[in-house]
Design goal:
- The complex is a heterodimer.
- Chain A has 2 helices and 9 strands.
- In chain A, strands 2-9-4-7 form a 4-stranded antiparallel beta sheet, with helices on one face. A 4-stranded antiparallel beta sheet of chain A has the order 3-8-5-6, with no helix packed on it.
- The longest helix of chain A is centred in the N-terminal third of the chain and has 20 residues.
- The N and C termini of chain A lie far apart (66 Å).
- Chain B has 14 helices and 2 strands, in the order H-H-E-E-H-H-H-H-H-H-H-H-H-H-H-H.
- Chain B has one domain.
- In chain B, helix 9 crosses helix 14.
- Classes of the chains: A alpha+beta, B mainly alpha.
């Protein structure tokens, strides 16, 4: 019986490792969104986006298109505490394929290691939230980023 | 030998478990519904429905659309709303449930910002009924929502906050239940209803501000199409829905003033744009047909 424990344990470990290799991650959507919603007041909740970030061996960009109504005032709250390694958040007026897009916000400007921050905007029809994911030197792993949009 | 005999079935069993976990969306949803409060933490891995795309889309809420539309001065026309007693007939499949959940959400929001609180309560009940078919019971039953709604029924800020909070909870539950595609389909339903209301009110009153708000809503069609395309295999009805919205988008972008602004790559000022009634005829018919397909 004792002889069986070691091989069985090895097999279980292989499957656990395989699961994480596929990019599985525990993301508590409820907790992350509740935290973000606390920073939204006095803006009313509009929508929220949870983005799965997969760290690879090279820098990658994950983009979220956010349509807005022109003339309305918005607050976008970011919650990055479920990321194992900090990403840079950039907000643009056009998508990443556009040549002449304008950078409206960079998380680098408010302190690169901040886990929660916000951005306010009006007079825009859409913004593009880019997560600049740094390369991973220790194999592939993942995390979650959340932002929440409020209006008033 | 004994070890080998035991290891192989164990290996097979584990492979079976891994395989089941990755592929059965229906099973996951069913499990989530049964888990109740214990489902607050889920393994939020890349689902079989949402692909790991580099670009994703965050769609606005039906509440915000109605809030912006109300500012145009549009009146309240109750005959435009979908009959709330239809809710039970939409429990035929996820697509029907989701589109009509969106339609009732838009009706609820329209009532709410027109201070029709009794109607709002009834549409909230319709949303709750369809929501229960989509596994959203908790979102509507937590925090004594119904009682708080009744208690604050004459206070717009409070009831809007209560409904916004329900919406946040439904968004979280869709995420947890791996039903991200349902939120996109539901939004397509809400958008269709909002456009239908706006276009009917404009055709009746010819209010320029209502027209500007309608065009602003039509501008969302492109993002909805892209969002639906990223989930095109999630439900069998999604490709036809994409085709219908693409048709509306093509009719919208062929409006002369819209087309000109797009060609010049200018920011569109819908308040200054003139649109001939004939340019709205095709859109009106397409929107009516899309809505009729959803609610019937």
């Amino acid at each position: 019986m004792k002889k069986m424990i070691k091989p069985l344990f090895s097999i279980i470990m292989v499957f656990v490792l395989m699961a994480f290799q596929n990019g599985d991650v525990l993301c508590n959507a409820k907790e992350l969104k509740e935290k973000a919603s606390n920073a939204l007041d006095p803006y009313k909740y509009d929508s929220a986006e949870l983005t799965r970030i997969l760290y690879k061996n090279k820098e990658t960009v994950k983009e979220v298109e956010v349509p807005l109504f022109i003339g309305e005032k918005y607050r976008i709250v970011f919650e990055l505490e479920a990321l194992p390694k900090q990403v840079e958040v950039q907000i643009y007026n056009k998508n990443k394929d556009s040549k002449n897009r304008k950078l409206l916000f960079s998380s680098k400007d408010i302190g690169a290691d901040k886990k929660e921050f916000q951005f306010e905007i009006s007079k825009a029809r859409q913004v593009y939230v880019d997560y600049i994911v740094p390369p991973s030197e220790e194999g592939s792993y993942s995390g979650c980023a959340v932002f929440m949009v409020g209006y008033k | 030998m004994t070890l080998k005999l035991l290891t192989l079935p164990c290996l097979a069993l584990m492979m079976l478990l891994v395989s089941c976990n990755g592929n059965s969306e229906e099973q996951k949803n069913h499990e989530s519904l049964e888990e109740g409060d214990s489902m607050t933490v889920v393994t939020d891995s890349a689902s079989s429905v949402t692909e790991d795309n580099d670009v994703t889309y965050n769609l606005p809420s039906a509440l915000q659309i109605a809030y912006v539309f109300k500012k145009s001065g549009a009146g309240f026309v109750p005959s435009l709303l979908n009959n709330k007693s239809n809710a039970s007939k939409y429990n035929t499949g996820n697509y029907k449930r989701a589109t009509n959940f969106g339609i009732y959400s838009a009706d609820l929001a329209y009532c709410l910002f027109n201070k029709k609180y009794q109607e709002s309560k009834e549409y909230l009940k319709a949303c709750k009924d369809i929501g229960s078919y989509l596994g959203l019971n908790q979102a509507f039953e937590s925090d004594n929502m119904a009682q708080r709604f009744d208690k604050n029924i004459a206070n717009e800020d409070s009831v809007v906050k209560i409904v916004s909070n329900v919406q946040l909870k439904t968004d979280v539950m869709f995420e947890q239940n791996k039903q991200k595609h349902i939120t996109v389909v539901a939004f397509a339903g809400a958008w269709t209803e909002s456009i239908y209301i706006a276009i009917e009110i404009y055709n009746k009153d010819k209010n320029k501000k209502v027209l500007a708000s309608l065009l602003e809503q039509l501008l969302l069609s492109e993002t909805i199409i892209k969002a639906l395309k990223s989930h095109k295999n999630a439900e069998p009805e999604i490709p036809a829905l994409i085709a219908s919205i693409e048709k509306i988008n093509a009719e919208f972008t062929s409006i002369a003033s819209v087309k000109l602004a797009m060609e010049k790559d200018e920011e569109m000022d819908f308040n200054a744009m003139s649109v001939a009634d004939s340019e709205l005829t095709a859109i009106t018919e397409s929107v009516k047909a899309l809505r009729a397909g959803m609610i019937n």
